[in-house]
């Protein structure tokens, strides 16, 4: 799938953003890419999409260096940037034709369903769609493309509240086994219960890469009037403490599914870091 090896990157005449970055993305996963403003999420997405060239090392999709932008890579990848730009003079149905023919596995029936859910019709002129509607059009196209790599940069930015919930609904369970999706966001709540893995990027470095299932094996995410002795990370709230504690330290507390916001803050504070990946070693090239 996506393999990044010893990758360095900087924008021209700017300080280095990534140094010696290594990452392997498994297929069949929805991956949340989290980071503070300026952490390098969009830069990493653009490197994976082949829109930026690494200064050193490699960014590959299967055996294609992404920056070569070979057709065999491009017709397996959809990148939706944070600020979508769609040809405004076209009608939705004409715009769809361009994509339909480019992606071999494009599912037009699926697209029609998604457009209904997002309340967009084929006869609408793109110039008459709002920014959020244009974004939903791109999301619907991406999810219907059958492409193996879906890179969505801040997909929920600009979406109203009902559309965010539709986004969550259409995404959950929609990924095929041979597809991988990366969703970059700093709106952690928007991807809660949606992602299989999470990556936390901080100042161009991967601080955490984890399967949520593996995190549940390692840690308990819980809340109580007072955090127990040995908690790794604690946040005080009105009704008590939200905390993370190692499985072996927790006594009789099974907690809930990982609280991504709590996890993110713990990683940024340097309380948790590293790889928590279940099967990755088996599939790593
Ligand atoms: N085209 C560019 N030229 C020069 N520097 C850039 C460019 N784009 C981004 N940067 C810088 O690279 C760093 C990473 O930016 P990037 O947009 O990748 O972060 P981000 O995590 O996506 O941030 P945000 O959450 O605010 O969207 C920042 O310091 C930013 O100022």
Automatic annotation (TrEMBL):
SMART domains: AAA (SM00382). The keyword NAD does not apply. Residues 2-228 form the ABC transporter domain. Gene3D superfamilies: P-loop containing nucleotide triphosphate hydrolases. It holds the Pfam family ABC_tran. One of its GO terms (molecular function) is ATP binding. Keywords: ATP-binding, Nucleotide-binding, Transport. PANTHER family: ABC TRANSPORTER ATP-BINDING PROTEIN ALBC-RELATED (PTHR42939:SF1). This is ABC transporter ATP-binding protein. It comes from Belliella filtrata.
